Task: structure prediction
Amino acid sequence: MSASDITESAETPAPPRRTAKRVLGGIALILVAVVLLITGIQAIIDPAAVVAGSSRTGRSPDTDTEAKIGGLLLCFFAITVLGFGIGLVTSKTAPKGDRAGSPH
Result:
């Protein structure tokens, strides 16, 4: 074994830290999740507004039940997006598939 092989194997790159890009992406996801959550809650609370909005389209208008189910699904999706956003902001290391020394 040569001396250069020993120094290369002894040096392990430090895991990547939180970057500004990841933090900004996480904040953007959190903001999108809040908007989705507010929209979903409004659809659950006031399905008549959703029905009135869908009556101006070319298809048949939604019913109150369809509007409430759509609002509930939107809330679940918003919670999922919120989880990803919080995960991006709070995690300090890159995902396992991303290597520190690999070119992108």
In short: The radius of gyration is 23 Å. The longest helix spans residues 64-90. Residues 98 and 104 are 9 Å apart (CA to CA).
